[in-house]
């Protein structure tokens, strides 16, 4: 299982966001591309992948690759899935999730709550991390990334405490969705070895 | 200079396409993500990059990294740049390009015409190619990729004739925009060596 936790700091927690202005909706476009980068292969879905979108450290939308039915590679239709999940947020009570469409559910959880759910190797993607190629390829990696904002002090502290490794994917600072694509490629190729 | 040639087989050649339905506009969403993957770094543009969107083998929209001013990472605003270029296509006469916004221009050229303009090493991204890591990192690479469709017989023939190398980026079939991200990472790291 590959997992990606993406921290959205500014996406509004209301379902009345406009699909015509995803950048204006707290840069929801970034999060949508993270979801599609995590799941979309050419004419296939990566079923062994799970994505957690943590919104304002308060609600988390989970996408489960093995159950997803309506995911398309474009931003707008993915944003509609996010909007649908936000529309169900009152049904999320305690840590019980509310499902809004196949494979998509929302729960009342921040980053700490999501980290509690993860198993496998926790990797923080960070420009100050070590080269990813110096690290062996974990069997069940969970990557944590931030949207267009840096990690907050509290998030950075949590990750420093909980992450197994801090790695970087190259000399350039990548968008979160591009980082997910590179991370998948590193895993697909067993560390750039199998093609 | 890094160049990416992306073949769009179904995008309509009219400027009246709807920004609310990019997938319905011949999968323009795919081409828009190719453009943003080629240029967008976190808070920066890759200035030493050029993208050619070849539309129906008839018109080509060129994006010049060093001149781009209004490119944002989301699909919709990038689609507006494509629409703006299509709006200027009557001004493209012979091989003379018409500029529609800073760094964006359209010309009457198909794939063959674009290949004539390329210098450097021509790489065809193809699932039957050799592992990219077995290839040295060229100084001025030009990659050719296709949208959600395979190369047509004519395109495949042209590429077989003109490409210097045929490479693959991993064992999975990637979307074109994800392939661009991986190709950049390969180049950024000098063949997964420099981080």
TrEMBL record, chains A, B:
Q: Where in the cell is it found?
A: Cytoplasm
One CC-aspect GO term: cytoplasm
Could you mention a single GO BP entry for this protein?
tRNA methylation
What InterPro entries does the annotation carry?
A: Alpha/beta_knot_MTases, TrmY, tRNA_m1G_MTases_N
Query: Please, which domain of life does this record's source organism belong to?
Result: Archaea
Gene3D superfamilies assigned = 3.40.1280.10
Q: According to its UniProt record, where is this protein mainly located?
A: cytoplasm
* MF terms (GO), sorted A to Z: S-adenosylmethionine-dependent methyltransferase activity; tRNA methyltransferase activity
Q: Which HAMAP family match?
A: tRNA_methyltr_TrmY
State the oligomer form and interacting partners.
Answer: Homodimer.
Record's family? Belongs to the methyltransferase superfamily. TrmY family.
**What is the protein named?**
tRNA (pseudouridine(54)-N(1))-methyltransferase
The record lists the organism as Halococcus dombrowskii
**Lineage of producing organism:** Archaea, Methanobacteriati, Methanobacteriota, Stenosarchaea group, Halobacteria
Q: Which gene encodes it?
A: trmY
